[in-house]
Amino acid sequence: MSFDRYESPFSSRYASEEMLRLFSQRERIETWRRLWVALARAEHQLGLPVTREQVEELAAHVSDIDFDLAARREREVRHDVMAHVYAYGAAAPGAAGIIHLGATSCYVTDNADLILYRRALRHLRGELLGVMARLADFADRYKATPTLGYTHYQPAQPVTVGKRAALWLQDFLTDLEELDHLTAHMKFLGCRGTTGTEASFLELFGGDGGKIDEMNRMISAEFGFDECFDVCGQTYPRKLDSRILNCLSSIAQSCYRMAGDIRLLQHDRQVEEPFEDKQIGSSAMAYKRNPMRCERVCSLARYLMADAQNAAMTASAQWLERTLDDSANRRVSLPEGFLCADAILRLVSNIAGGLRVNEKIVDRACREYLPFIATENLLMEAVKRGGDRQQLHEVIRRCSMAATENMKNGLPCDLLERLAQEPAFALTEEELRAVLDPALYIGRCPEQVDAFLTKLQPLLAQAPKGEDTIRL
């Protein structure tokens, strides 16, 4: 590491080694070379003047890349693809004359991007499944643990800790379904010529369009793609980039929602993210346990959600068969988007695997508001004992307002004591307290969690095993 030059935090702090390798310069150029080999192989098999020995020579030199030579050549010719054609030719001199035959730069740049993006999406799929598996374990463990529900961030009907985690889990399921649909329908550019007309290959194959189609089928199949785009300009349609970054943005949205909820709950000490034995929460306030992981998730998620706008603007401004103002933007926005999604999911996996539930505080918060929540049940019981529903409703309203005012002055909730003193209720304080079991007010939460997790089991079985490590 150099400490004298800027380095992306994704490289130095956040992203996984696998994702960093995937978007490395070496992986990119080796993919270019594999594409050149595939093109030469298809041209040889379809009868163009490319020998088997030339194909084999190219295949033997995919990895020995002279980056310094390519850099020197690029400074001379101001063209990165032609610089690497030159460097590849120097490594495989017997095949130098047929490298890139009939192709345009986008043959290697765009097809390589498609290959790398699909690999990156599949990597993220594994990370997403890992998050889901950990959340599923958490949801199952706490599916029947009552907790105060919140709407508008105000106390509401109780739910369970596990049911709330199932809400986060359902968001991630939506992301997984979107990612799977995207990867299943990704198409290859193929070798289509300067404006997508395949004119150069029509010339090379003597007007035989069938051979051009077969060449593209052979190349795309070699890289695991079932189809090429039906029509294209010089590049593959940039709408695909927009779909990719929207998918990554969707993952970021789900991660932000979960991390934001945990930050709110950690404020009340109900649920806490992992905190290590020697971790320092604040340089000045030694007692603090800041939710730094969740805060980092939210911070990075904001970046990724905003990054998705790059692809939307690029897709909308392609200018007929293409314009080059997408190139510099895509070099940053797509790889950084993947690195960011990778970093976020690794953090969320770590959080989901180490969430701490302070059950006594959760129970206390629930019970503090339970008298108010139970008033509808109390009203029904009092009516069954002969009370007037409208009169009882007014009694509850009046007593609730008084109890709330007491709580605002720092006093405990005395709603039940007040109701017990009301003749219209005809219920003792002991009878009133008998309905204050939080489990009576969680509805079908455990059943809902069980049904959802059962549905997810086939997917969760695909989750990678093992512990994740993150750099903080």
What class do helices, strands and sheet pairing give? mainly alpha
Which strand order does the major sheet show?
A: 1-2
Let me know the average pLDDT. 92
How would you characterize the largest beta sheet? 2 strands, antiparallel
Q: Note the run of SSEs as H and E.
A: HHHHHHHEEHHHHEHHEHHHHHH
Give the helix tally. Answer: 19
Unreliable spans: none
Counting DSSP E segments of at least 2 residues, the number of strands comes to 4
**How far is the N terminus from the C terminus?**
17 Å
Oligomer: single chain
Radius of gyration: 31 Å
- Tell me, briefly, the overall form: elongated
What share of residues are in beta strands?
Answer: under 5%
Percent helix range:
55-70%
Produce the secondary structure layout.
Elements: H1 9-14, H2 17-22, H3 25-45, H4 52-60, H5 67-77, H6 80-91, H7 105-141, E1 146-151, E2 154-160, H8 161-184, H9 199-204, H10 209-222, H11 239-267, E3 271-272, H12 292-315, H13 327-354, E4 356-357, H14 359-373, H15 375-384, H16 389-408, H17 415-420, H18 429-433, H19 445-460
Antiparallel strand pairs: 1-2, 3-4
Summarize the structure in words.
The structure is a single chain. The protein has 472 residues and is mainly alpha-helical. The protein is 63% helix and 4% strand. The chain has 19 helices and four strands. The strands form two sheets. It has a two-stranded antiparallel sheet. A two-stranded antiparallel ribbon has the order 3-4. A hairpin with a 2-residue loop joins strand 1 (146-151) and strand 2 (154-160). Helix 3 packs antiparallel against helix 4 (52-60), helix 3 (25-45) packs antiparallel against helix 10 (209-222) and helix 7 (105-141) runs antiparallel to helix 19 (445-460). The mean pLDDT is 92.
